[in-house]
Design brief:
alpha+beta, about 15% helix
């Protein structure tokens, strides 16, 4: 592996945003019981179809039986996504949380479309962008071998 390149172990590549993207974060469910909480504004650092990383001053427990809601404003679309917190890292006096989205197939497809539309309009800075382009160009599924900028 080349020096300076990191291995990406995620299923979906995360894109680090150059422009601030904020979301409203609140508690949705603990185990089977729905519980609503007040909303907290959080800053999203990176995002993908599979999840995101955000930071906040709140200390949130890492539990897989607790679901949270993030309300995102992508362009003119407000998107409400359920998430589970996977890990936390102290960062600059705040806490950075990694989350995984909890979605059905149709919800994922709709979110993917909205996210791609949003990413086309904002400048994206990702160290994994070249590996994403290589992954697209190396496909053996009979699809286009060139970068398709219309899809």
């Amino acid at each position: 592996m080349e020096e300076g390149m990191e291995e990406n172990r995620r299923e979906h590549l995360r894109f680090r945003l150059n422009v601030p993207l904020y979301a409203e974060f609140s508690l949705w469910r603990v185990r089977e019981r729905e519980i609503r909480s007040r909303k907290q504004r959080v800053l999203i650092h990176n995002i993908s179809v599979g999840g995101c990383q955000f930071s906040t001053n709140l200390q949130i427990p890492v539990r897989d039986d607790v679901e949270w809601i993030l309300n995102l404003q992508l362009n003119h679309n407000t998107i409400k996504i359920k998430a589970i917190i996977l890990h936390v890292v102290p960062k600059d006096g705040r806490y950075a949380y990694g989350v995984r989205w909890v979605m059905t197939g149709l919800e994922r497809q709709a979110f993917q479309y909205r996210l791609q539309e949003y990413l086309r309009l904002v400048l994206v800075s990702s160290k994994h962008i070249l590996s994403l382009y290589k992954k697209i160009s190396d496909r053996d599924d009979g699809q286009f071998k060139r970068l398709d900028t219309t899809s």
